[in-house]
Amino acid sequence: MNRSVQSVPDEDEHSMYLDALGEEIGSNQIIATVVRTESAFELTTSSSISEKELSALLKPHFAGDLFDKLRCVSLEEA
Length: 78
What we know:
Blueprint: H1 11-26, E1 31-37, E2 40-45, H2 51-58
Antiparallel strand pairs: 1-2
């Protein structure tokens, strides 16, 4: 996640937004686990999924209310 957006929340708000985002992403059936370390998330899927499919799955989570507060910077395979 990257805080370089127009409306940068303070540190407490930033943490709150990230916690909510992690919970929201984790509620998807294909996501087995979500581990947050500072502003990064490590996702484990319950089945094989391509980077393109994962990107499409995550895209709605960065729209709406969170769009002006958080951005997806990159997806990397571990």
